[in-house]
Amino acid sequence: MNVKYLNIYNEIISKIENDKFGTNAKLPSENQMIEEYNVSRDTIRKALNLLEQNGYIQKIQGKGSFVLDINKFNFPVSGLTSFKELTQKMNVECRTFLKELEKIPVDHFLKMQMDLLDDDEVWKVIRVREIGGKKIILDKDYFFTKYVPSLTKEICEDSIYQYLENQVGLKISFAKKEITVQQASDEDKKYLDFENCNIIVVVKNYIYLEDMNLFQYTESRHMPDKFKFESFARRK
Amino acid sequence: MNVKYLNIYNEIISKIENDKFGTNAKLPSENQMIEEYNVSRDTIRKALNLLEQNGYIQKIQGKGSFVLDINKFNFPVSGLTSFKELTQKMNVECRTFLKELEKIPVDHFLKMQMDLLDDDEVWKVIRVREIGGKKIILDKDYFFTKYVPSLTKEICEDSIYQYLENQVGLKISFAKKEITVQQASDEDKKYLDFENCNIIVVVKNYIYLEDMNLFQYTESRHMPDKFKFESFARRK
DNA sequence: AAGTGGTCTAGACCACGCG
DNA sequence: GCGTGGTCTAGACCACTTG
After folding, report:
1. What would the mean pLDDT of A199-226 be, rounded to a whole number?
2. What is residue A163's predicted lDDT score, i.e. its pLDDT?
3. Distance, Å, A170 CA → C16 C1'
4. E strand or H helix that includes residue B162
5. C-alpha to C-alpha distances, B9 to B13, B120, B233, nearest whole angstrom
6. CA nearest B42 in A: which residue?
7. Mean pLDDT across A81-103
8. What percent of chain B has pLDDT over 70?
9. CA dist A32 to A35, A36, A40, A64, Å?
10. How far is the CA of B58 from the C1' of D15 (A)?
11. Is the pLDDT confidence value at A127 over 90?
């Protein structure tokens, strides 16, 4: 890409991940970086602010910018990231099983969830995620057909997001997430490796495009003993 | 405060919350705001970027800035916010019961959780939160005595954060959060209104000061049927 | 006093949406 | 073509930390 501050941002991330900043983990000062990258101070500061927001560094006025301990603060699963992107980063062995793929009219349940009145059509995709040999997550995705005209078995088994962003050209922008704990349904028990517990962790995702239109609703249903949600937050 | 972009940020938030931007919910353009507030474009953009990050607005290049539906995206509980601040915003009836308050040496459990070796002392605070007449949350807080020299019953029953930031002058900066689901402990059953379930949702918080030192570890233990975690995320 | 990050300004050019 | 937001620059002054 042609955006300087994003290039610098990514470059610094990879330097942090490869431990290029020495033992005390102090970044060069902004003035040093201005010379190093040959850009203005504002461009450096944009990159540093992004790093700070995302938990990579901490800036302290009068002292400098410091790397936050990578093992403690990296890879929060709290963002808007696809399952494939997550597993690639975390380097775990996992498989995806496509259970259902069909085009259906919006029913009452979806009208409630997606807060709609009209008679749109959606793609319903049900997939099971297996990690370390155990079926742990049941993903139920619903995509508006008006944004996603076609969807195939191959795409669903690989990465739907990659397809939507690169092939279809959708601009996925933001999501509202919601985590609750519920009684497991018959569908959960049918698809997942339940033992003696009948509780399920439900992560609902309402996902919006850049034009603020809802295009996807997702329920990720997790086995409770394998569920872990991490995030990073800053005090306002 | 003397910071222009924060003043503008807060002013726009309150305008959004009071529905001052009309039906289509389009904000004035950046150029209009420059005149309205008599500041430079960069100052306006800082305020707007903050609003966008926190889910208040969506900017669309070539079109403008638009308010995100307040009912859908407001008040995410995912940040670094104290219980008192949350309940004040949400306008619910709740009570806090202080169960334990003592100064203890760091034990093995805390050494593991807080990743420490030395023999520091901590304040241990156990509080029960009652909402709508039901005891729903068990909060176990541990504060380093080196940062928090004194702590009283009155402070614990009001707002510890208010005391720490305003009286002690601590600069609370960021936190790592972790949500898991566990078997309920005897302590959970002793303090909370359990019925037939024996599962508890555990929200762990590791809270750091501006100088990157850990000063607090907190476990918020929630009844699963009352637990709901909401957050807002943007695609990178 | 020197160096660091924090805020603010004024101006330039670019990319996008719309009529 | 115009107005919108996105990026980049150069310079100023302030607040804070450290020696």
Report:
1. 92
2. 87
3. 16
4. helix B160-162
5. 6, 41, 19
6. A42
7. 83
8. 93
9. 5, 6, 11, 11
10. 33
11. yes
> If you measure CA to CA, which chain B residue comes closest to A172?
B235
Q: Residues of A with CB below 8 A from B232's CB? A: 174-177
Among A80, A225, A233, the residue with its CB nearest the CB of B80 is: A233
Three-state DSSP state, B182 = strand
- Cβ-defined contact of A176 to B72 (cutoff 8 Å): yes
* CA atoms of B98 and B129, how far apart (whole Å): 9
Residue B20 has what pLDDT? 87
The burial of B85, by beta-carbon neighbours within 10 Å (0-12 exposed, 13-18 middle, 19 or more buried), is given as: middle
| Residues in a beta bridge with B229 | A179
Helix (H, G, I), strand (E, B) or coil at B194: coil
Please check the confidence at residue B36 and state whether its pLDDT lies above 90.
yes
Per the CB < 8 Å rule, is B212 touching A66? Answer: yes
Q: Which residue is nearest to nucleotide D17 (CA to C1')?
A: A62
Q: How far is the CA of B53 from the C1' of D10 (A)?
A: 28
Task: Note whether B80 contacts A211, CB cutoff 8 Å.
Answer: no
pLDDT band for position A74 (cuts 50, 70, 90): low
Q: What value does the mean pLDDT take over residues B119-136?
A: 89
- Chain B residues closer than 8 Å to A210 by CB: 58, 60
